[in-house]
Amino acid sequence: MRPEAREAVITVRGLRNQFGAQVIHDHLDLDVWRGEVLGIVGGSGTGKSVLMRTIVGLNRPRAGSINVLGVDVLGADEDVRHAVERRWGVLFQDGALFSSLTVAQNIEVPMKEHLDLPDKLRAEIARLKVKLVGLPPEAADKFPSELSGGMRKRAGLARALALDPEIVFLDEPTAGLDPVGATAFDNLIKDLQQALGLTVFMVTHDLDSLYAICDRIAVLAEKRVLVEGPIEVMLEQTHPWIREYFHGPRARAALGA
Amino acid sequence: MNAEIGKTTFWQTARREGGLGCACTGAWIIANAAAIDAAIAGTESVSGHAILDLGGLSRLDTAGAHLIVKAERRLAAGGATVERIGARPEYETLLELVTCDAARLVPPPPGPPWIIRFLGGIGQSTVNAGHEARDLIGFIGLVIVTLARLIVKPWRLRLTSLVFNIEQVGFNAMPIIGLLSFLIGVVMAYQGADQLARFGAQIYVVNLLGISVLRELGVLMTSIIVAGRSGSAFTAQIGSMKLREEIDAMRTIGLDPVEVLVLPRVLALIVALPLLTFFADIMGLLGGALMAWSSLDLPPRLFLTQLQQAVELHTFFVGLIKAPVFAMTIAIVGCYMGMKVSGSAESVGKMTTASVVLSIFLVIVIDAFFSVFFSMVGL
Hints:
Shape of chain B: elongated
Number of domains of chain B: 2
Number of helices of chain B: 12
Oligomer: heterodimer
Distance between the termini of chain B: 84 Å
Low-confidence stretches of chain B: 1-7
Shape of chain A: globular
């Protein structure tokens, strides 16, 4: 993508997050461009998930500004925020499906909340999403507790995609999946991203995902985004942690694949 | 983007030679899905050749793509051959992605009529109740075996846990149990005196109070409060541990969950409930005595004298002997329901409710058996 054609869908400036005396982020700046897959990496405790939670409004930062799809999400009033929330979907680590509802009902929840659709059409679309994320038809009428971890993730993704959002936030989407399942999940995200023109904000540790589907990677370290850029840029870095991360044995294996 | 709703006609059809020409225009997105769905529903099926022009689409998402596929299917149902023209390449990809067997998008039929489901439900619950009873008896056996092992090897008792649980279920329950028993005593004395006054036999309010509180009410009230307060806590604690695989972790480390979790709770309640019952008895009598003094002018000294005549020692023990049995019932049911939690957070709530209901039910049933037994042996 040519730099001048880029449009920022998420802009974070001067973000500061602090829990008690522990500072997680300080002067963190980040841009996410429309239509890209951005991978967020960083060691344990560098606040990858906290960053995601802050952007989607689950965590109030101490300082800084966050702009999503042209809306200042920290300062906007309720209605404006609500309208923006409709335009993004979030997949939590374990799917976070509502345990008292079936998969199809879970997917229908955002549609019921935000749209006025006839019951039949809503049920069709919910089942279509089940198909899109690669779940078997019978999974639609199962409860989350009856599904495996990988299936719960897919179901969670289906719910995140229920309203055909412009941005999806994924928190470690391939963690806990077997390599075949993880690759399938990567391909699914890439396919959906290309077909729907999605912007994907992905917290991940999976080097295969980073190589296979991320257009750009942002490394969180020293309380901010230390480096950002495509994988080639990462490979040239001299920072010890980044070097270790992208040149370790696992990284070489992923690169070789 | 919302301005398009209502203004745009999303779907136009025109008869043409040899078939039908259809044009999809505007934003076929989920926000407009209801309107589009209604529009395409009016299209009758045709025979011949139908052309679907997608050139006028301004936006398309999965819901819109699904509706295009649905429209095509509707046209094809009449035997028409459908040809798609003017679609952008990315739309083609999307259309391919959403194309699937129509049958899988239909929810399964709702099942048999309600009367069959109702009767089936009764049968199912009966069978479940049978299984429940069998499993509960099995669990009681397990607890007793573990208890027997503990008697042989008493050093395996988790003393810290036991003391902690006694504090939780016993000491911390004293304010609420004291207050409620006191109030029950007040109410009993007041109501009893009201009735007995008709015969001029107010003094017998002491007999009424002494026997009913010591024999039944003290222990029953205490058990019911403890079942609601501690039995439910046992279920929720053990249930959450079960959900987070802590129980499984214990087993792999070689710890016996029954020994570590269940026994301290059962023993704690067996110790605490008789003590609480004694406390409840005293508070109940105190409440009654105060009421008798203030409204019947029955001085405490007279109350005590009358109490000594009315109540024999065995009345007090008949009440108290039930406490350990109730304690064991409540604790075992609470722990058993906790162990049965599985799957989801919802299950914890369901089992906690079931635990309270079952333990109160059992306490009252066992109390009835005690009454029959005591009357047979003449106490």
